[in-house]
């Protein structure tokens, strides 16, 4: 007999899993794809163009994240998730067929506009959760993302050994199946009583930022989250290029490394988040996670053996334990009718990080991966990220409202 009480959270976690599988499938082949459409370019040079495409994708997320978050507050979470998944499938098809950098650009624009699945899923979880349940359930979403990264990169790595285009078509199929599953099994979570009336002013992304920032204590948390996102986005921005340059990894090996990370990520988010919060509180969980992340980044930067990097993965993934706690602290500051707007703002801050980080970190990687440079140090982007995250910790320590210390 199906437990209907927990069915909604199971369906939304499954949605996140399938969505991250689609994303993870394509990551191992990005260096091969970029050098394929940019003949004559080295991996480091192709990484710069990869950073540009990632930033364009993020610009679209930044603009449309709050818009889609507000629309989900008005029209419901379910239709926004369905539309997003359908257009993501189309994006993957375009990228799989692309023979020029401009067609890839078109695909990234389309994908960025509709890439709201994670934010809307988080709003869905906030709708159906009590204050005490939120941190653990945000952790479930993170675990679902991690499980997808267990499956996606290893599939993408294996398919990438056949050809750099194959994983994109596989990702399109996964997104389509995800949309079908949501259509038949995902019920709307937003109560009609708390739905907002539609207004053009409500879909202004900058107005949404202003409204959310007025809640007590949220400005500091949003700044901390932004700096955290900028620093940790280094993994998504440069991992395939960094490992290909530093260790000469193939798509299969890149996929294996991401799979190991995904296993650790899923375990930490799904199993360790709530016990850690129960033991030391949300505030200290944030500090613990950020501190571990800083140490991991420094170690990744200086490691010269690829197998040592694999062995370091559990420590690197432990750093993510602070993010659900920080998200829960922010979520408690807004009422039910603004959960979608908050998650849209969080998505846009994540998008800002993915505007800044790919451009800056791929450029740093390129500068320090040039054999003619005075210093050859591909790990330089991770040092820069560790410095940024240290600044985030200082802001959290000295400016976060003191009433949250015991939470």
Task: Describe the protein's architecture and organization.
The chain has a single domain, classed as Up-down Bundle (Growth Hormone, Chain: A). The chain has 16 helices and no strands. The chain is mainly alpha-helical and 407 residues long. The protein is globular, with a radius of gyration of 20 Å. It starts with 6 loop residues before the first helix and ends in an 8-residue tail after the last helix.
What characteristics describe this protein?
single chain; about 400 residues; mainly alpha; Growth Hormone, Chain: A
Kindly summarize this structure in a few lines.
The protein is mainly α and 407 residues long. The chain is built from 16 helices and no strands.
Cα shape: globular
From the 3D structure, determine the CATH topology: Growth Hormone, Chain: A
Class in CATH?
Mainly Alpha
How many helices? 16
Strand content: under 5%
Q: Report the uncertain regions.
A: none
Q: What profile does the largest beta sheet have?
A: none
Count of distinct structural domains:
1
Which CATH architecture?
Answer: Up-down Bundle
Helix/strand order: HHHHHHHHHHHHHHHH
Tell me, rounded to a whole number, the average pLDDT.
83
In which range does the helix fraction lie?
over 70%
Structural class: mainly alpha
Layout: helices, strands, pairs:
Layout: H1 7-26, H2 30-37, H3 43-75, H4 77-97, H5 101-114, H6 117-127, H7 131-162, H8 166-185, H9 205-213, H10 218-232, H11 234-247, H12 251-302, H13 306-318, H14 322-331, H15 339-368, H16 380-399
Helix pairs in contact: 1-6, 1-7, 1-8, 2-3, 3-4, 3-5, 3-9, 3-11, 3-15, 4-5, 4-6, 4-8, 6-7, 6-15, 7-12, 7-14, 10-14, 10-15, 10-16, 11-15, 12-13, 12-14, 12-16, 15-16
